[in-house]
Amino acid sequence: MIALALAFYLVFILPGRHLWRSVRPDDAPKPALTQRYLLSIRDIGLTLLVLLAICWWNGYSAADMGLAAPTSGAPLWYLVAAVVAMTALLAGSAIQSARMTPEKVTEALDKGRDTGMPADADELRLFAILVLSLGAGWELLYRGFLLLVLTPYIGTWGAVAVSGLTYGAAHGYKNPRQFTLSVVSALLFAAGYALSGSLWWLMVIHIGMPLSGAVSMIQLRRRELQLASSAD
Q1: Among candidate residues 174, 169, 202, 176, the one with its CA nearest the CA of residue 188
Q2: What digits encode the pLDDT tens for the residues 75-84?
Q3: Which of these, 218, 37, 32, lies nearest to 127 by C-alpha position?
Q4: In this structure, which long-range contacts are made by residues 127-130, counting pairs with CB atoms below 8 Å and at least 24 apart in sequence?
Q5: pTM above 0.90?
Q6: pLDDT for 93-148, tens place per residue?
Q7: Residues 204, 86: contact at Cβ < 8 Å?
Q8: pLDDT-wise least confident of 2-11, 114-123, 154-163, 202-211
Q9: What's the distance, CA 94 to chain centroid?
Q10: Would you tell me which of 36, 117, 162, 201 could form a disulfide with 79, CB atoms 3.0–4.6 Å apart?
């Protein structure tokens, strides 16, 4: 029953809360960026503690949750491909940042600040902890756990559909394009887990993408400071 209660929270309450927050008018000032990072780390940490208790109570193993060591076969190759892809993404972001015009640098920084990206090294360190927590945590909760719990009731692909739709909705709603991309990417991640049975490569992607964006933001910030000092 506790497992179903957590599944109910992930499928209905958490996505509903984020959707409501994203569409309701809110004139209250937002907390400081570091405080928002800490609140998110706290929330995912508490949810993972509940998941840990459920796994202990129900006897779920690491393999049941998609955490079997990827020592051979498709899971290993998926992990290797994910690491190579994220390394290439990080290198590509660095090259792109170095080639940006001053106008593009300012535009990218403004956009990054609006989406909660870090602006300095201290924020980047806290953001890295956040990304590790969310990247590993959400994969465990919305892929490993939900598919394990829901599959006996609605089948593998029914569980994939529910996981993808609800996790996409948990990103909130900004516009139709953002919402559609969130749902589609969540469905692809859930399908990737259903086909591979491994979360490791998905965690690498989930962690690597926002982290590469954050590193790129710091590089752009340094470029902005260099441009400002050279102008003086």
Answers
A1: 202
A2: 999 999 999 9
A3: 37
A4: 127/37, 127/211, 127/214, 128/211, 128/214, 129/37, 129/41, 130/37, 130/40, 130/41
A5: yes
A6: 888 887 888 888 778 877 777 778 888 888 889 999 999 999 999 999 999 999 99
A7: yes
A8: 114-123
A9: 21
A10: 201
Alpha helices for the chain (secondary structure H): 2-8, 14-23, 33-58, 73-99, 102-114, 121-138, 146-169, 176-196, 200-231
CB 213 within 8 A of CB 115: no
Token pair 């394990």 is found at 148
In whole angstroms, what is the distance from residue 196 CA to residue 76 CA? 10
Contacting residues for 144 by C-beta, under 8 A, at least 6 apart: 64, 65, 66, 67, 193, 199
Any idea what the Cα angle at residue 133 is, between residues 18 and 222, rounded to 5°? Answer: 95
Domain that includes residue 46, residue range = 2-231
Rounded to whole angstroms, what are the CA distances from 78 to 23, 73, 139? 37, 9, 15
> Are 95 and 219 contacting, i.e. CB atoms less than 8 angstroms apart?
no
How many domains does the chain contain in total? 1
Cβ(191)–Cβ(160) under 8 Å? Answer: yes
User: What span, in angstroms and rounded, lies between the C-alpha atoms of 17 and 43?
Assistant: 13
Largest CA distance in the chain: 66
Residue 173 main-chain phi, psi, to 5 deg: -125, 120
Separation between Cα atoms, residue 136 and residue 167, nearest integer Å: 14
